[in-house]
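Student: Please help interpret what follows.
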Amino acid sequence: MNIGNVELRHGLLLAPLAGFTDLAFRTVCAELGAEYAVSEMISAKAVMMNNKKTLGLAKTAALPTAIQLFGAEEDAVAYAAEFFSQGGLPTGEVAAIDLNMGCPMHKIVSNGEGSALLCDLKKAEKVISAAVKASKLPVTVKIRSGWDDTCINAPDAARVAEAAGAAAITVHARTRAQFYTGAADHRITEQVVRAVKIPVIGNGDIKSVGDVQRLRDMGCAAVMIGRGAVGDPWIFSRIIAAMEGREYAEPTVRERVELALRQLRMSVEDKGEHVAVPEARKHLAAYVSGFPGAAAARAGINSLTRVEDIARLLLNAAKEAEQPRI
């Protein structure tokens, strides 16, 4: 699959996750095989107002990165799309503009943004068209299956996006009502594939090469992995090895901890310790999940505020976890 000038050999993308897919995490995923990433969602209105904190979310990692915008006002979305596509971001290359029509959070949908646009496809078409006209880069769109079980309209939304000029569609195969619970229903993804001619990217409950292959068999051009990569960015290298028929050695406990700490230190370099440590706790807890002593390690992570104290705790926990059990 290609998005603009970006060729995706394996079709493995890192999904945008608010509060998770910061620069450090995207960098780690790139090192382990992610070929493309989408930033945390960024308010188009805040870009218009030159909000520095908002612009900080748009830093790009060492892999092709799309900037994801949310908004329901055409002028704001057009401004932000033009801003990022014309080099408004000083921290690296932008591969595409991605429009969010999937966020389920109340504070977003109450403003008619995110997945609320699935309930107003005329408005959605205007927003997408405004971004396409303003952007010098490809514009992609991320949608959900629909609003709830009574309104499954992803194929219609995809047709609207295609008609408005979108270059690709990502389908998170859950409704807004599901949020992140229940199972993704990729029968809807397959319906979207049949509804449009542009590439479709499957998203939701992708945990193995088997999940990837099922979506490929449905006609998806690529897949987008989100929560499956949190605490386990090796998911990308594991899937690539399986695709290529290679043996794959799972990381040791020590290797998991060392990568977690490297990600933490990159985040500290980017944001400062007082911001990075609290934000990184959810990542660190996911990295240590499943090995002996994980509960105690998580409790320590949540009580410590200095990187070196966290490093000491986790390295000791790794040493304990790798001790032979009698």
